[in-house]
Every structure is written in structure tokens, then in C-alpha cells.
Design a protein that fits this description.
single chain; 338 residues; alpha/beta; Ribosomal Protein L15, Chain: K, domain 2; Four Helix Bundle (Hemerythrin (Met), subunit A); four-stranded mixed sheet; 12 strands; 47% helix; globular
Amino acid sequence: MDSLYVVEQGCYLKKDGDSLKIMKGRRVIQTIPAAGLKRLVIAGWNSLTGAVLDFLIKNRVDTVFMTPSGRFRARLLLDDTGHVELRQKQYVRLADTGFKTATARAVVAGKLQNHIRLLRRRASQRDLRELASAALQIKALASRLEEENDLERIRGIEGYAARLLYGVFGLMITNENFEFRGRNRRPPRDPVNALLSFVYTLLTNEVQNAIKLAGLDPYLGALHEPGRGRPSLACDLVEEWRAWGERMVLTLINRRVTGPDDFVFRTALDSGERPVEMKPDVCRALISAFERQMEHRVFYEARGESASLRMIMYGQARRFAHSLEEGAEIYRPFLMPH
């Protein structure tokens, strides 16, 4: 097993010989071989022993801490062996207004194209004019984007396109037990938003891993401004993957893999509590679906062959690194198949 997710609340992780054990009190929840572990995600109020921490550091296991709702909290920061020369190019190139604007425009264009494809596919399946209309409106925004050279207006186009998508997202839900009245977060206030936030965080973590492997600095991007604790480049490069995450959430809901009983709802909130929270079983189902999606193979034109989505993410990070070279073409996002 190369990835381990700890989602059951009130657990701790301990090392026992060549194995890692997820414990709840004195009960063993899960035992896995320690060898080969590459990623560890701890969601919620869980802990780990000193021996586990030592193992994670020595074996350079990428370790992410998230809230129960899927919001990123922290990452175990290991000594970085990134390519210094490449990062110097990244800082210089992204300080150039023209290059930064062109890159941001390309990032938004990729996101819009993938959302157009998602909406058109669902409009065809459900014969809904509202979805087709939203796709046309986003297509018009994409046309405007081609001539836009102002970074703030590019961001405005991206924000307006997102509002159009979320305005019709509920129409793509066929499970009568779920409804979507708009995007909300920090914290999510309904099950659909809880699922979306969790998937977006998983995708961002994957993209950030790819960025680090490419030797880039995840905290300097083009579309998203640098901010304290914000991996701006990861936020940029995850945009082209959001439609994939939304499609996965729709599949889980519409195929009734999850239902209202998989969530804890609160009406009178104490300080620090969340209005809605996924139960461990739905977290595990979501993570299992996510891992299957990451291994799904599609054609990757940059290599001229099929590859898993995880490998394509790594390829896209390298494509961004190549775009930093003088004379290289501007970054090209990955588009989902029609």
C-alpha cells in the first residue's frame, strides 16, 4: 500500500515492527505494512506516536493533516531537494507581468473548457436546456478570455464561470435525497458541499505532490496570489482537475453510493463544530473512489499514449516546468476527453 488515509475520529497511529497500526483505544482498526508507504493523510482529530513520526521523516513519507471536513491544515515539511536552478527560473519568469498573465489565462482557459465538456455531457444525458445554456455562457466567457490581458479581469472571468457552473450544479444531481443550493465552504454547510470540498482537497494534495517531484516551488503561482500558507501554484494547476472531482462527486451521489445517513448534521453549533460532517464510512468510500479515479487511464497527448490520471498530473507539473524556459510555449492544461 503506497497511500494510507486515517479518517476514523479519535484514533492514533503506532508502529509495530514492520507494520503501522491504526488504533482506537486498545482496538486495532487497521494494520498495513510500513514498507512502500509514500503518502499519509490524517483527517480530523487523530494523532501519531513518536516512532511513527520518526519513520515518516526517515522514509520521506508525504504527510498531510486535514480537518474532518476535508480542509487542508498542515503538511509535514521535509528537507527539500528541489531543483534550485529551476526554482530561480520560476521566480524570475513569474515576476514578468506578461508571462504571469499569459499563464493565468491558460490556466483559466483549461478550467473553462473542462467545465464546458462536463456540462455538455450532462446536458445530453438529461436533455436539460439549463445545462446547455450554462455551457454556452461559459464558452462565451472562454472567447472573451482569449483577448484578455488584465490579470484581475482574468480572475473575474474565472469567478463568473464558477458561479455559472454552481448555479446549475444541482440540476446534475438525480438522487432526490440530495440538493445543492450553491457553493459554500469553510465550513461546508450541506453534504454536497462537504463532498466537493473533500475531493478538491484530495486533488490539491495530489497536484502539490507532483509539483514537488518536478522540483518547483508550490507556493508561487500565476492565477492565485501568494498568501500565508497557500500553495498558489498547486491552486493554479488543480483548476483543470476540478471538473474531474465534480464528476466523481456526482457519480457517488447519483449512483447512491452515499446517502443522507452517511452524514452527521448539527443545528445548534458549539464553538468549533461543523454544520455537516461525513461519517468515516463515506470518507472511506470517497477515498476509495478517488484512488480508483487516480489510476484510471486516458489518452495523454503530451506522451502520445494512455496514462493514469496520477501520472498525467506529474506530467502536467513537468509541462509547467518546461514552460519556464525562454522561448517555450505557455503552459497547456490537460483537457478531459469529450
